[in-house]
Amino acid sequence: MRRAVSEGLRIWTHRPYFKQHPEQAVALLGRLKADGHAYVRKSAGNALRDISRFHKALVAAEVGTWDLEDPRVAETYGFGA
Prior knowledge:
By secondary structure, this protein is mainly α.
């Protein structure tokens, strides 16, 4: 289910609500940054990278709050780079 959230948000530009409210998509993906499954973290990082193409400052603000000392969070950050 968590991966479905992140995969669904990868095509966020096709969803009217998230197109108008990208901060909601970023917030939902941010919740997955330390998920226990690498597939979920990778998907979340990739989705954030996609969103950052149009909303760089919004994604930068989110990842700026992340504790990159946590290996899982750092891995998600790396997927999004």
